[in-house]
Amino acid sequence: NADAAMYRAKEFGRDNFQFYAPEFNTRAHEKFVLQEELRNALAHSEFILLYQPQVDLRSGDVFAVEALLRWKHPTRGIVAPNTFIPTAEETGLIVPIGDWVLHEACRQNKAWQDAGLPPLTVCVNVSARQFREPNLIGRVVNALKDSGLEARYLELEVTESLIMQDVELAVATMNALQNLGVQISIDDFGTGYSSLSALKTFPVARLKIDKSFIKDLAVDENDQAVASAVISLGQNLHLRVIAEGVETDDQVAFLRKNNCDEMQGYHFSKPVSAQGIEKLLDGKRDG
Ligand code: C2E
Ligand code: MG
Ligand code: MG
Ligand code: MG
Predict the structure, then answer these.
(1) Strands (DSSP E) along 8-164, which ranges?
(2) What is the number of H-type helices and E-type strands within the chain?
(3) pTM here?
């Protein structure tokens, strides 16, 4: 559409661009405004992280948390990542924002450990642009050094589609991360196009079954087939499997019956503040 608008605009001369392509121009303008706001948000520390527990389905223990980014906007309130990460990704702002996430997640996890909480793994989402950045390894090393967190307590979540964009590069980067001692998981698994033969060459520890397959798990036979196939795949490749978006008892029952290792979702807890995690784990300890 943008191309078509551009073409039309060219046809009528540059000065008529605004007149002939109002839609394109509005979108470009909105993106520009958002970009400036995101830059400002970073400078004024408006980003926060929430943490969602991940639970072992056999023991019931919380062993990890996923860090999830939120923008605490001065007038709009809490803004969800899906509304600004695509623009951050397109403009490259995801690199400094992601760097902040990495540092903050490592700092918080070390603070929990220092406060005597049982050691957790913190999982950080990494987008394609961040992952391709030549300095990713250096940034991860710095976040670990600055926080004092041991590498084994950090896990990076990458998506299947990100890996498939350039398999060779992705495997090299993942190997370098693994050599540091950082763990890797494949997020939104089942929605991308990774070939099963390539999967065995990926140095990953876990598969996260995408929540779209979990949503109707209790009733939809196709979702049941996909979920149980991913669980067996994980077992055969010696990878742990976690289901995300788990909300109901029926979903938990299905996952248990099919020997899924772990779960994450509103059934156990929504994403909560760092203090919320402390309360939750203290409660578990006392009870
Ligand atoms: P994701 O990594 O797949 O994260 C899971 C999403 O599912 C989160 O949405 C989480 O709040 C939501 N969720 C968890 N449990 C349930 C449940 O039981 N039911 C339902 N319906 N949803 C559940 P959120 O926090 O809005 O994040 C959306 C996406 O934004 C994430 O998907 C991830 O791709 C991206 N994202 C979040 N934080 C970051 C970040 O720091 N950096 C990057 N690059 N991307 C991030
Ligand atoms: Mg994730
Ligand atoms: Mg996911
Ligand atoms: Mg996602």
Answers:
(1) 47-56, 62-73, 77-79, 121-125, 154-159
(2) 14, 9
(3) 0.91
Q: Are 72 and 47 spatial neighbours (Cβ–Cβ below 8 Å)? A: yes
Query: Distance (Å, rounded) from C-alpha 226 to C-alpha 189?
Result: 10
Ligand 1 pocket, mutate which of 102, 125, 157, 188 (most atoms under 8 A from CB): 125
Count CB atoms within 10 A of the CB of residue 133.
Answer: 19
SS3 92: coil
- Lowest-confidence segment of 11-15, 229-233, 265-269, 274-278 by average pLDDT: 11-15
> Which residues are in the CB-under-5-Å shell of ion ligand 4?
188
pLDDT single digits (tens) 159-197: 988 998 899 999 999 999 999 999 999 999 988 777 777
Record the tokens describing residue 66, joined without a space: 């996923």
Do 81 and 74 meet the contact criterion of CB atoms below 8 Å apart?
Answer: no
Report which DSSP code applies to 118: P
